[in-house]
Structures are given as structure tokens and as C-alpha cells.
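Support reply, case 0932

Customer input (verbatim):
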Amino acid sequence: MHKISLKDWVVLLTIVPTTLIGLGIGGYFSYNRYVELDEYLTLRAKSIAEPIAIVGVEPIIEKNRDILRRLIGTAHRNHSDIVKNITIFTADNQIFVTSAYHGDTGLLRLKPDQLIPQQTMVEVVPNYLIFRTPIYDDIRQQSPNLVYENALGYIAIQIDRNKVQFRQQSQIVIALGIVVFGSLISAIFAFRLIKNVTRPVTSMVQAVDRIREGKLESRVSGQLVGELNFLKNGINAMAQSLGDYHDEMQRSVDQATVDLRESLEQFEIQNVELDIAKRKAQEANKVKSEFLANMSHELRTPLNGVIGFTRQVLKTPLGDTQRDYLQTIERSANNLLAIINDILDFSKLDAGKMVIESIPFTLRESLEESLTLLAPSAHKKNIELSLRIAPQVPDSLIGDAMRIKQILINLANNAIKFTDKGAVCIDVDIEHQQDNKASFKVTVTDTGIGMNSEQQKTIFEAFGQADKSVTRLYGGTGLGLVISQRLAQEMQGDIGFISEEREGSTFWFTFKCEINPVILAHALPVEALANKSILYFEPHTHSRIATSDILTSWHMQVMPIGTLDELTTELEQKQHYDFALISHDVTPAALPELKALIALLQKRTNTIHLAVNSNSPSLHEVLIGNGATSCLSKPITPSRLAKSLMPQHHENTTQVPIVGEQKLPIKVLAVDDNDANLKLIHALLAEQVQEIHTACNGQEAVNLCQSEKFALIFMDIQMPVMDGITALKTIKAQTFNDETPIIAVTAHALSGEKEKLMVEGFSSYMTKPIDESMLKHTIYEYCDLTLLSPKAETTAHAEIKSPTVIDAASFALPIQTTAIDWQLALSRTGNKVDLAKDMLSGLVNSLPETKSLINEAIVCQDIEQVNTLIHKLNGACCYTGVPALGKITHQIETMLKQGQLLDQLEPEFFEFFEHIDNVLDEAPKVLEEVEELSSQS
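Our regenerated output:
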């Protein structure tokens, strides 16, 4: 940007203001003079025309031209300097008399379409002004309201403007000359000022610039006047001081350079020491990780044995003391196992290896499962545990239900642990919802010991609790809240609390989930309860509100009561209720009180349901024997309550009827190189779509796509011959399935890999094991929605199978195994016993060869071969109910994908091969028992 110099400022502040002021004043007075001359000309013209118009009335009436000719001739001669012509026109626009017969009377005459003006009017033509004044008779003058048709004519005067214009121009020239003269005088003074001030200042600026550049010997010379001489002396003194300072600074720099060299030598020594310390720390961290993995394996393996055999011994006839000792052993072992799991979860979160899943689930069912686990602890301390879910909270979600339950269980366990009496209340609400995503808030409130301000500061620190006395009294690792905080943040939420010492605490956490458009949970069959009356007695306010909300949502007529006095009064006033639901705490006096209540209620209702904070079957039997229809264990959940109020319905549905459904009339392609995985996905798809094609690698899939049109394609990623990504690109480019949604199916998808798959062109992805709900959701999302309408279901020509009844519970194995979870295998194959058995057999048959090949690849340090074999085994483990083997296989594949070497994974491979041996040892016994159960059924 150009900077304005002092010289420019002088010019701007002298010449420019003078010129502007001169132009302003000259323009003002020139304009005034210009206007005055125009007004002067107009006034003279009117002073000529209007008297003639008054005098000329009678001569016009009498047609006496001579008088008017002498009159206008005299006026013309007296004003000949400006008057060019004076003409009088009659009312019909004819010349009556004129002062210049050789003049241009056409300019003075009105146009044919013009009327005689009512007063003097002026018309401007080049170099002339035409003034026209009407001539009226006496009637017009006496009656001015008469119309102007009474005019006798008009007088027109042609005024010459040349002399006036000359005067106006002269005035402008004179004003401009004055402005120029003033500007010249101002310029003379400005340049004089520039010579005396700005030139010395410029020389001083140049001297300062030289000093700034390091030429400290520069000085300002010459004799100056006034303040400029003081400024010159100051600059010279400054230059001298800078020179002295520079010399001193140079000496200091030389000394600092010597000191810096010595410091750098010390830093180099320290860097070498730090590098050695860093390597030692990395080695120690590696040793810690290996130790953690080894100790996890070493601790979990005997613990599983202790827990398993303790449970087996508990099934045998035992004395009371022996049973008590064994139960103590089991509880201690479970506590130790929970501590180990907490430490492992913390290490995963700390290393950033915790993966948050996105799987369809039902929120209410997940929370009820958590309450079922928490209820015994609350019952043991006689604490009221209740859950209230706001009615507007959606139930079908997509997220990580296991982690949500883990946080809730951690917070609720803490609340129960630190509460000796009172209640633990859980509230679930929705914070906000936008499109298909929502944020939820879960609040856990207790009436326990609370925390002081010092304890609150350290509550989220790892391996610590409020204080050592709390740790000694209540136990625990102090990792629960830290893990919960990290998990909540991983789910785009947060965690917090409000607490007051001896007044209890309120912990809350938030999380975000996607709302599932596919309804997963079937509505409870409570239609028969609509408009039924129910008397509900519950002393605890939160439980009363929560259960009342459930009953009201079923359209029942609820009478909630909180005290025994209110209950007695209500029973005296009301004649009959369809149901009675009575909640009571288990106390030494509970049984007599409940018996009395049952006897009192039997007069008003025949159906009495009890809810107690106890899981004791004997207590439930005693209460039912004393007249109760059913007895529930608190907390009350919708499913249990519906089962109690409508027992006949649930008795008929203890087994799950699997009735053939109408299938979607679409064609789907499934691609996987693992025969077991391909068989399973084919079985799962067969329940939902009419036509399924399968392919063992990407090339087969491409060949099928060149001849067939598919509505949806499920594509494995790692396959021989042609991998899934290459097959995707080929299908999009060379077949007419370019618009077909292709879903990536992989047993291992890190966060970075998921984004990569979407960039490559996949419409979505699914992780193994394939969840039936997620599969249904994917078909719903990427297929034509009209196929899912009731109309399409009625028109689809699917094969309808005869109704069959499968009781999955009848295939529960009595034996306990640490390596094989048969119930998990059943759930992952949709409760298909034969399919689960075939897939487990296939895995077991392949394990010896897989183990041998992986051993050989490790010896040869062939990372690519190991990665391929591990990936294939990971996919097979997803569907066969081997959680321990599947977990370590998934962990090894993750670490290989993150670039770790085989030598670094030695502890993991040690645990991996041990889990393979465990599966091979336990599989024959499990398969044999499955065969026996199948033959019996």
C-alpha cells in the first residue's frame, strides 16, 4: 500500500483546502448571480407585458390597431436592449398587431392544441424567452372565477437572452479566475513550507533508515531552525547510543555463544540419555502389554475352571455349610473375573482399540435384561430398584446395546453398593431427535452415602475411589466410572453427576443412537386389558409412577395408592376391581401384612397380584398359597407384568411358533469363500426373500451378474481368485447390475476400513456374525419399500410352509463348557439346531489343518499368509458359538491390520492355540449331547 509522505500532506492540507474553499465560495456567488439575472429578465418581461395587457383591452374590443401599435412600439423602443418582438394575438390566435413585422411571429404564436394561459407564462427556446400574458375583458376582471374562454387574446413578447447569458458567463469566468489565483498563492506558500520543513525532515528520515539498517555511523548534518534542530540533535544522540549499545551487545552475544555451545553439549548428552530412557519405557510398555495378555490368560483360564466346577459341585447333594462355602467361592471368583474384565476394558480404551458396534436392538428389552442382573443385589439389601422409561422414547434402535448395558450396570451397581436403605431409581428419556438420530439420557438416582467436594474431584480417576476407606469397605478396582465415561464419549455422549454428602447421588450419562425404521419388538398382547380397572398399591413414588405409566399405556383404568390408609379408604368406597397389584418390601413383618392385605382384597377382587423385592421361589409359593394369583419379583417390567395379568396367553406361547411367512419377491446374491458362512447367510436369507444365488469368489459373482439382475448383493471382502473390492468395481463397470446396492460383509472392519469400503463404492457394510435384525434392516433400507407393504405380502407367490413349533430352550445343554457356547451358536443361526450343529462340526473339522498352516506361516514369518488364515477363521468363528476363540482371533487380526509384527504377537498366538485345543477337546462331547437331544426331540 502506498504511504502518503509529509510533502504530500503539506500539499493536501494547503492547496487542496484553499482550492475547495475557493470553488465553493465562487460557485455559490456565481450561482446566486446567475439566478438573479434570470429573475431580473423575467421581472422586466412581466413589467412590459402585463401593463400592455391591461391597457389593450379596450383597443382590442374596439378593433383600434393604431393605439395598440403606438403602445407596443413605444414599449419595444424603450426596452430594445432585451425585447426582440411584441405581438398581440386575438382569441382565435390571429395576429392583431406586432412591433416587428419582419420578425418571426411563428415563435410567439400558440400551437393549435394550446389554450390561452390564465396568467403570464414563459417558454424557453434557443437564445430567447417567449412570455405570453392573457388579455381579459372587464367581466373577467370582476369575476375571476369565470372560465378563461372570455379572454380577448394574449400578448406575446420575445426576449433576447444573449446579453444576460454573456453576463452570467462573465461572472463564472471571474469566479474561476479568483479560485485559480487563490490556489496559486496557496501553492507558493506550500512549496515554501516544503522547502523549509519537509526537506530537512526527509533527510532525517533517510538518516534513521540508515541507522535501522545497521549503519550506526550515520548522522544528520546542516543547520536547522527551531524544533527541527532539536530533533536533529536527538537523532544524532540516539545513533551514538545505539552504536555504544551495539558494541556492548556484540560482546554479550560472543559470551552467550560460548555458553550456548556448552549448553548444547549438555543437551546432546541429555538427549542421548532421554532416548535410552524412551527405549526402556517402550520396552517396559511392551513387557507390560505382554504381561497383561499373559496374566489375563493365566488368570481367566483357572478362574473359568474354578467357576465351572463350583457350579457343577453346587448341583450335587450338599450340606448347608458346604453349599454356603461353595457359593462364597463362586461369588469371589466372579468378583475376581469382573476385576480382570475391568482392567482389560480399561487397557483397550486406553489404547483406542475399543470398537462401538452398530447393531439393531430394542432399548426396553436391553434395559430389562440389565435390571434382571441388578435385582438380586438390590433385593439382598432390601433396596427399592425401579425403572421408568418415558413414553416418547423409541424402542427400536441401532447401536451398541452391550456397552449401554455396561454403563448402566456400572452406575446402578455403584448406586446399590453405596446405598444401605432407600431406593435406586433409573429414568430414561430422549433429549433431542433429528431425522433418524436421537440423543438419550439415562439417570441413576440413589439415597446412599453421597460424596463431599474433595471426593467428587477424584471420582473419575483410574484405579481410585472416593477414599481408601471406601475402597476397603466396598471393594472394587475404581475403574467402573472411568470405563463408563470413556464408553459414553465413544458413543458421542457424556457422563456426569450431582452428589451431596449423606444425601445421595445422581449419576447420568448420554449416548446417541440411530433410530431403526424396522420395528424389532412385537407389541405385548395386552388388548384384552383395555378399560379394565386395577387397584395399584405402591409406597415408593418412583416405582408407582413408572408402573402406572405402563398400565396407562395399556389403556387400563389405574387407581394408584401410596399408603395403607388410602388403600383401606379406597376399598371401603369401591365395590369391585378387575385386578389388584400390591407392592410390598420384604421385612420380618411382611408375610403377616401381605396375608392380611390379600384377605382384605379378596372381598373386592378375585385377581390379586403381588410384587416383592425378593427372588425367593419359596416366598412366592407361600404368597400364592395364601390367595395371590401371582407373585412378581421387583422391579416390575412390562413383559413380566403382562405375563402375570394375562397368564393364559403366555402359557400358550412358551414355545415359539415358527410359521412360514410370505417372502419378498426379490433375487439376492450372496458371495463368500467360506462354505459355512455361505451356508448360514443362505439360510438366513431364505427366510426373507424368494430367490437366492451364491458364489464362492468374486469372479463367480461377476459371471452371475453378467447374466442375472439382482435386487441386492452381499459381498465378502477377502476371497481367492478375485477379492470383493475388485468384484464390486467389475460389476459396476461391466454388468447391468451397476445400480444394484452391494453390501460389504466382513468379519473384521476397523473404523478406517469401514470408511474405505464406503469410498470404494459399497452401499453399506455388515460385520460378521450377521445379525438377523441387521439383515432385515439392510433389506428394508436398500430394497423397494413397496415390496414390504401389506399389499405386496398378499400378492407375493412365496411358498408357505406348514406351521411348526420349535422350542429352542429344549436344546439347552446341561453340561457347562468354557470354550463352546451352544446357546450363542443357536442364536447366531436363528435357533436352527441342525444348521448350528453343521457349522460347529465344520469348524471343528477344519481347526487341525488351520492350526498347522498358521504354525508353518509363523515359522516362515509369512505375515500375508497368517493374515489370510486368521481372517478366514475369524469369519468362521462368528457363527459357531466359540466366543473365546473368536475374541482372540478378532484381536490378532486387528493387531495384524495395525501393522504389528508376528514376534510382537507371541503372547496372543500362545492364547490362540490354547483356545483351539480347548475347542477340539470339548467339541466331541457337545456334539454328542446335541445329537442325543435332537434324537429325543
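We compared this against your earlier run and they match. Two observations from our side: The first helix runs from residue 6 to 55. The longest strand covers residues 423-434. Please reopen the case if you see a mismatch on your end.
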